Automatic annotation (TrEMBL), chain A:
One of its GO terms (molecular function) is ATP binding. SMART domains: AAA. CDD domains: ABC_PstB_phosphate_transporter (cd03260). It comes from Vasconcelosia minhoensis LEGE 07310. The keyword Transcription does not apply. This is Phosphate ABC transporter ATP-binding protein. Pfam families: ABC_tran. The gene is pstB. Keywords: ATP-binding, Nucleotide-binding, Transport. InterPro entries: AAA+_ATPase, ABC_transporter-like_ATP-bd, ABC_transporter-like_CS, P-loop_NTPase, PstB-like. The keyword ATP-binding applies.
From TrEMBL, chain B:
One of its GO terms (cellular component) is plasma membrane. Coiled coil: none annotated. The keyword Cell membrane applies. It is found in: Cell membrane. It comes from Vasconcelosia minhoensis LEGE 07310. Residues 1-24 are annotated as: Disordered. One of its GO terms (molecular function) is phosphate transmembrane transporter activity. The chain crosses the membrane at residues 32-58, 84-112, 124-146, 152-173, 202-226, 272-293. The gene is pstA. Belongs to the binding-protein-dependent transport system permease family. CysTW subfamily. This is Phosphate transport system permease protein PstA.
From TrEMBL, chain C:
Belongs to the binding-protein-dependent transport system permease family. CysTW subfamily. Part of the binding-protein-dependent transport system for phosphate; probably responsible for the translocation of the substrate across the membrane. It is a multi-pass membrane protein. One of its GO terms (molecular function) is phosphate transmembrane transporter activity. PANTHER family: PHOSPHATE TRANSPORT SYSTEM PERMEASE PROTEIN PST, PHOSPHATE TRANSPORT SYSTEM PERMEASE PROTEIN PSTC. GO terms for biological process: phosphate ion transport. It comes from Vasconcelosia minhoensis LEGE 07310. This is Phosphate transport system permease protein. Signal peptide: none annotated. It is found in: Cell membrane.
Amino acid sequence: MNSSHTAESNAQDQKSKEPVFRTEDLNIYYGDFLAVRGVSMEIQPRKITAFIGPSGCGKSTLLRCFNRLNDLIPSFHLKGKAYYHDQDLFADDVDPVAVRRRIGMVFQQPNPFPKSIYNNIAYGARVTGMQIDDMDELVEKSLRQAALWDEVKDKLGANGLSLSGGQQQRLCIARAISTTPDVILMDEPCSSLDPISTLKVEDLLQELTNDYTIVIVTHNMQQATRVADETAFFNAEASDDGKRYGFLVEYGPTERIFSQPQEESTQRYVSGRFG
Amino acid sequence: MTSHSQADSRQPDQNAKNITRKKGSRQSLGETAWTVVAGLCLLTALVPLFLVIAYVLVQGFSRLDVAAFTRLPPPPLSANEGGFANALAGTLIMVAIGALISVPFGVLAAIYLAEFSSGQIPRWIRFATNVLSGVPSILMGVFIYGLLVLPFFGFSAIAGGAALAVLMLPIIVRTTDESLQIVPQSVRWASLGMGASKFQTVLRVVLPAALPAIATGLTLAVARAAGETAPLIFTALFAQYWTDDLLSPIASLSVLVYNFAAVPYENQRELAWAASLILVLIVLLTSILSRWATRKQVY
Amino acid sequence: MTAPAYNDSSQAAIPARSGQSKWLDRGFRIVTQGFALAVAAVLVIIGIQVTINAWPAIREFGLSFIYTSAWNPVESVYGALPMIYGTLVSSFIALLLAFPLGVGTAIFLSEDFLPAKIRTPLAFMVELLAAIPSVVYGLWGIYVLIPFLKPIGGWLHDTLGWFPLFRTDYIGPGMLPAGIILTVMILPVITAISRDSLTSLPPSLRQASMGMGATRWTTIFRVLIPAGISGIIGGTMLALGRALGETMAVTLLIGNSNNFNISILAPANTIASLMANQFAEASGLQVAALMYAGLVLFLMTLIVNVLAELIIRKLKPY
């Protein structure tokens, strides 16, 4: 159902063939511990790419490399290469702050700031130094894009924490898109939401794919089939010293991954026969 | 739904996909500057600590001899160097009296707060306890002066100890309350589930489990009381000689430092530094010990 | 099968709890509750006690005690304005210096500017500042701080002498050294409570801000400090309460002058140091006047502390 969007986008954007992210044999470590091993993949623009796989397979860890949020963990380091539009993400002259301004993130737990709904949105524009003529307009547009406007338009001054869980998460999405990032990373954005809120967020993702490249980590395979154009399956296995590390098993169009997986472990996982 | 051309028009700058660091940009200079400022705040905060400890060590150590611990405070200008034997004993006696009153009092009150609390009463008591710990220590002295010194005992070790007890009370209640609350609920259920009464559960299970943390709190309260001066100057007063009963004025290390701090007599001033050294050592040792003990806590 | 048979079986019946055990539980609860109530009562009794003892002075001078500045035991005329001014100004100097220093230190020790192995002992050392006895600060202040401040005080008077606060020359003991020593003493209070409130913020908050491309300090100023503001303000209020009532260090450094002087370079007095100086030798109406001053101090610290508690409790976003 996304094919029409994608074709349209491709037609509009000549450069869309150029991948947004490209990794080459990426190994991620926490201290001595190897968390993710040897990932090589490309993320295509204006598509939704889902990372699926069992717990501990390193999909969230990989996701947080793309906006260098792992930098906040002191023991984190990596080997291999990760490129964003052909720029080495981990080169010395890269400013992680500039990276994060281009690459937004939505987290597992909704994490609005303890500020008003209005200021939650305005924050991004203020800290990234965007020239905004009409902040009210930006707030409204972002909230509309996140399908939250109608529910909160009469209480923009209310604290973001006073919203329900599903509303909080859509506020976080509105916040993420308010700065018009190039990419939005989503780390299990629906795992703490009820089914109805989950559906709302999924509908929202479909709409956002017109404008944004989205990478979403999910535990929920139905969600991947519902929203993702591309799916990457990660698995974990124990190394010789008994520690588990994650690796990329298979990556391709969602339909193929779920209907004709080439690896047996993928087959087992997507059919629910996995541990 | 906005088309993406519209979205693009909102992009902050033309070179939007450029993620390289701008060397010497105002932003990165600002970041560094603030970090330096915060680091300097920390350094500034630590300078007085080192200066005070260094001065007390240097000035006090030369006078820390056997005489200091065995003799009585010297009269001004005498060749007799003297010591603070009676003040050290006085401090110990009054802290002991203070602990004797405040420890059972505070621990029992905390048991109520942590174990039986329900409704509004404990909230108010906790509130009052916190406010009490903020009451200036000199007012604890004023309180005891009005309560005990004027009507009953006069200046005395009992009154001094009582003033210290009031000072220690909120500290003990709060640390004991917190220590008891850290004990997991499951431990209480385990005991009650075996048919133990509430009394048995608290006395035999919860209190022993919280004991290391409680002991730490008590130690800190005692250390704080040992260094206090304000509540003693008009409850215990001071004495140049040994005091042989608890109802007469009695010396203490902290009041000795106060009395001898600003005098023009070299021998008394030296003794003030030596007594300060003892007070600082008591505080440093108990703080470090209690810190070490909290690391070994059960919960 | 029948009910009587069941009752006969001593195995199945729940044995009644002995009366003694029940009585013990109830008694225990009542006893501890009594002690807990007594702790709260101490606060009230202090207030009543001081008011009763101050009553003769309250009746004699009324509210004029607060805004007149005679302190004359010979003629039995008492007004506490110089001491109230001294208490407020010395505390204000301390707050002015300790607030930025304390919050800066708290930020530096709550963020990962330094590895945790160095940070934790440094935080402990800042807390040690609060443990050093007040009288030791006083002794140190007389022989180290007052001489050290001489050039600074002299400079203040020489360049800013036209300004009332620096009207008099620096002669040593006075409001300035007292304010500085109070700064040192309350700084750990501000730091400890601010640091607690900053480190207890959920990590997701920092991630949300950093994830949007905010820099570290933007995150600190715009997200972390606003979110932790209740602790920072509450801690500062508690520190103010401590400064208002701090006695020994101030007594040794402030010069104990009962004459009103607006200059912070001149000797002054605070309520607490007035009491420390005069209580032991006072009698008659002077005791009542000192108690009245004590009551003023009690009310000042009470208000500040109650506000601090309320702020810390009520304004927490999490």
